[in-house]
Amino acid sequence: MPMSETELVRLVLAVKVYQMDHGSSPTKICKSVVNEDIISTLPEALRDKILCCLPIKEAVGTCLLSRTWRYTWASMTELMFRRADFASGNDNADDDRRFLKFTDMFLFLHNGPILKFGLNTIANEMVSTGGHLYRWMLMLSRNKIKEIQLQTSIRDSYKVPSSFFSCDELEYVYLRACVFTSLHLPPPSKGFKQLHTLRLEYVTVEGNSLGDLVASCPNLEKLNIRGLYSKSNINIRSTKLKVLKIEGWFTHLNLHAPYLTSVWIGLELNSDTDGASTTRCNFNLSPFIASLSDVETIRFHGHILEFGGLLPFQCVEHEFLILKQPKLFNRLTEISLEINLGDLKEANFALCLFQHAPNLRFVKLKLISRNSVVPTVHFWESIDRDVCLFQNVEVLGLFDFTGSSAELSFLKLLLEDAPVLRKVGIIDKGLHRNVLKYLLKLRRASRDAEILIL
């Protein structure tokens, strides 16, 4: 990270104080500053810090400063190669060649450990890092690398090189537009024992390679996957995982991570399918939630409530029975759902969450109007008012509010049942004036509650 102006001022003052404490007057200090080659006498660690704050091309240019700096760039510990830094505004193909050649030569001449390596080609639809990427990864695997960030274009998809799995000292990984296979995965005993954060974007998973990868990271705490594509069975098991985010298209997902504090799961529709009726996700959501003990935040978006399995709920003559009583989630303070409040299955699932989250403070609902297999039939009006569901809720957010009967009934229930409610934010889809008047007349248990139509 670059030093702030305050930090630089403190550094200069510290040097001056040190010199004055050792008998140097301000006048002598000024003369010594003029006569002394300060740049060449900087400590090696500080020189490395300065270079790591510069664009890579400018860092190499410091070889002209002095003899001491001539080869300092060749031992930099943090490297970030950006394709945009090589844009000339003329021939993109020529810029690509210069960028690839520069990166090749830099890594070939580099001497010493590389703790952090970054590659960014997103801004330019650069095609075919191809063999270069495999060669660079091989070099990195021999340099005690601790952090890798490969931000490549989605048009430049690649299979993760086998040498990546030899980087056994990794602590942080961000990969984009890649394909995982089980062919080169290490056994759990030789995995990434220091890896704490794994971030993937637009990733294709073959077989259970993702589950095997997580299994090889015994200390993984954060798993963030955006744009997942998988037709295989994914089995993720981790006892150290704290933060989980999975968004994408998948057909089979089995999760066992009992100590999660934050969960975000979003299911997208496959663009190849003809319609929602052909989509199915084999993921039993409720047993997964019931296995959690420390969860603080739950977010379910996309079509996960529509197509994910909501056992232990069983439909019996248009009513849902709870087959297994979940435990209380005493740490759960935030729930965010993409939900059809007019569907009995989804509404009952949400109710079950609310009933077992006594310390819930924030509720965010993205409202979906879709055809309901089982309509709610006045579901929210029939809730027992003697049971205070929202006793600690402070903020409610409703997105894409249409003013349907189910949505109005839910809002009425919460307003009458939340004694400490402060704010209700509603983003509507062109509400009728009569609906707006109805909203403003609803009785509120909290005197401080305000309704904002955004």
Automatic annotation (TrEMBL):
Residues 134-260 form the F-box/LRR-repeat protein 15/At3g58940/PEG3-like LRR domain. Residues 39-76 form the F-box domain. It comes from the Eukaryota. This is F-box domain-containing protein.
